[in-house]
Amino acid sequence: xxxIYISIFVLSGLLFSGCADEFLDVNPTESVPADVELINxxxxxxxxxxxxxxxxxxxxxxSFAWNAVTSIISDDADKGSDPGDAGxxxxxxxxxxxxxxxxxxxxxxxxxxxxxxxxxQALDIFPKLDKVTPALKVRLEGEAKFMRAFMYFTLxxxxxxxxxxxxxxLPTSEEDRIMQLTRKSPAEVYxxxxxxxxxxxxxxPDKSAYGADDKTRVSKGSAYALLAKVNLYQxxxxxxIDNCDKVTGYGLVDDYASQFKKEGEFGNESIFEINGVGSTxxxxxxxxxxxxxxxxxxxxxxxxxxxxxxxxxxxxxxxGDIRRAATIIxxxxxxxxxTEVPESVANPMYNYKAYSSDFSNQExxxxxxxxxxxxxxxxxxxxxxxxxxxxxxxxxxxxEVRLRANLGETxxxxxxxxxxxxxxxxxxxxxxxxxxxxxxxxxxxxKDAMAANGKTFIVGKHELFPIPTSFLREAGTLSEQNPxxx
Length: 486
Description:
Layout: H1 8-11, H2 42-55, H3 59-62, H4 64-72, E1 77-80, H5 90-94, H6 103-125, H7 134-159, H8 174-181, H9 186-203, H10 220-233, H11 237-245, E2 270-274, E3 306-309, H12 311-316, H13 322-327, E4 328-330, E5 349-351, E6 369-373, H14 374-387, H15 391-404, H16 415-429, H17 436-443, H18 446-452, H19 469-475
Helix pairs in contact: 2-6, 2-7, 4-6, 6-7, 7-9, 9-10, 10-11, 11-14, 14-15, 14-16, 15-16
């Protein structure tokens, strides 16, 4: 096991852009022996939560494996790269022929539980910090609970029921060992997530209350938006509407493409966004190899060429939809900063939302991950209203998103047609923002969508990721594999 420590860099309370390698690096079974007095101040308390945000900068958490299990796996993307480069397991994930030993699923499991452990560490230490400004400590507790809820929601969407580790486990406790190795039901995990989010809502300020130095932090609106999304997955339609209505102080930006550039970071539409700070040296402050792994490959290119847009995605955009050019880098095109993409690159299309103008071929780029945007809030509310039979109220929300994309109002009028229109709008609005696969599963579209993309989706198997073999080996009879013959 790795040595556990809290580095002086974390304890100094660096902002979200702080060094990604100088933080708590632990697995779910480890705890942190620390001199509480060393961090018994405002900056020390902030550092504990900065360590949670920094978890999202990790290669294992947000880069190669995450792109595989949310994007390459879906009908929006292909493995890309060269035919002979499997990217460890990206070929079998693309073909839906993976199993419980496929490394990417292990990476997502481990990295999210490492992040949950950081949340638990912070929540365990906060009550001991009597020299921290009380209001700040309340806010930081809210941030930690939001992050814990977000990570559990990620695990739940992918794996179904998972172990709920709600405190720092004691190495000598049999009860805690069982806690870490026993999968809970999806209903229990949903309830835990909702409790954390309701606590976060109580503790967090509105986005407008933050100063410029804290713009990267989550707010009350972030928690309401995530809670609405949790409600969406459970088909609690009225709760979706109620919580979407509480996401206030946000709006659509005029220029869709701008929010995926450096100058558009944390704009009016941003509800939860992971900050990357580019660097030409290591360790850096960006998401490890997120940009370069998806950049054009081959002669004249500057990246690895993985996670390439599918032809099906390119064709899903209606004529005149400005989002197509903002989402897809085309071979032979010129990018917004004047960079030419030669005809000699290996693949015909690449992910534009992963592009970094200033650090295009660096391990650590300044590209951000946009996890929650106001456009999704509008589409979630529209979907819920339509499912409750209030189609006439859903259509204007759908049209808000379409009009920003330079499209006309939707021709859909019936509940069935509006449902299909909303699902399609989610696809093109949020392409490469890590939602498509989970949307296909929750809406029951996966089998047909995969077939249209030349893939075989097995009903009763592919709805859930395989539980990693290493976990099941340790759990023994305490937990079982997901169905499907993994």
